[in-house]
Design a protein that fits this description.
single chain, about 280 residues, Rossmann fold, 10 helices
């Protein structure tokens, strides 16, 4: 494969949702894009679209929890195209359950994908970005849940809060090497994340003391994602494209009116009033 003077991107979690649309959007805008996913069997749709539109897109297997597949994928990309201009860390899932009912194994698994997966692939990409002309851009797909917490999502919120801190810290470290870091903070997006989300084993039991909370919040999230006003993944992909093509991108991009409203409310309301508003929306009487 000969790719000359091309910008190269890799997007994790490209089998659906934000990752799927971001990979296509980058490819449609001139990036030679590696659409990475853990399960290659889910690559049929994106492969067919890329073929139909003659897009510079190639599917590659990456399990962000597996250091071997990460190394193999990055080694292949560097061997084939010699550079990596954009890394979009998108792979992740949600875990529902009150802290009391989450097992340590379930919490570790949540961090393994949502946080350590980002660390793993970013560390693999950085030597190439640091040494190449022009640096690069690392985009970490966080969530408004990385700024504002909700009950029954303590593990998920913790991973996204950690990702926010990681991203902000490395943004300072990487400035001397021309590498920009961008955090994307979507609100409710119409994706299948609820289908891929996990309810903790103990939390799914009807006799759980937290069962009413879990059911209410699960239902609230589903209704918000089906809300006609909720954004679609391609709208998030457009924000990511804007960020990676900007000469001086912002560190943070909050995406969606709902996300902006939540962030503004937290800034403008007293802590007591904001906590009460969360209770009113998410917790049963």
């Amino acid at each position: 494969m000969q790719v000359k003077e091309k910008r190269v991107a890799i997007v994790t979690g490209s089998s659906s949702g934000i990752g799927f649309q971001t990979a296509l959007t980058l490819a449609r805008n001139g990036y030679f894009t590696y659409a990475s996913m853990r399960n290659i069997e889910k690559s049929k749709i994106i492969t067919e679209i890329a073929k139909k539109e003659s897009l510079p897109l190639q599917v590659i297997q990456v399990d962000v929890n597996d250091s071997v597949t990460v190394k193999n994928a990055i080694d292949k990309i560097v061997k084939d195209v010699k550079r990596i201009d954009v890394l979009v860390n998108n792979a992740g899932y949600g875990l529902f359950g009150a802290l009391e009912e989450l097992s340590i194994e379930e919490i570790k698994a949540q961090f393994e994908t949502n946080f350590f997966g980002v660390v793993r692939i970013t560390q693999a990409v950085l030597p190439t970005m640091r040494d190449q002309k022009g640096g690069g851009t690392i985009v970490n797909v966080s969530s408004v849940g990385g700024l504002v917490s909700a009950p029954i999502l303590s593990a998920y919120n913790s991973t996204k809060f950690a990702l926010e801190g990681l991203s902000e810290s490395i943004s300072h470290e990487l400035i001397p090497f021309g590498i920009r870091v961008v955090i994307i903070e979507p609100g409710f997006i119409k994706t299948n994340i609820m289908n891929s989300s996990v309810v903790a084993k103990k939390a799914s039991r009807h006799k759980s003391p937290y069962y009413p909370y879990t059911q209410r919040i699960n239902g609230y999230f589903k209704s918000m994602m089906n809300n006609p006003e909720s954004l679609t993944p391609d709208e998030v992909a457009k924000v990511i494209l804007h960020a990676v093509t900007s000469e001086n991108p912002q560190l943070r991009y909050t995406v969606g009116n709902d996300a902006s409203a939540i962030v503004q409310a937290k800034r403008n309301m007293s802590e007591v009033d904001f906590i009460n508003s969360i209770k009113q929306q998410l917790l049963p009487e």
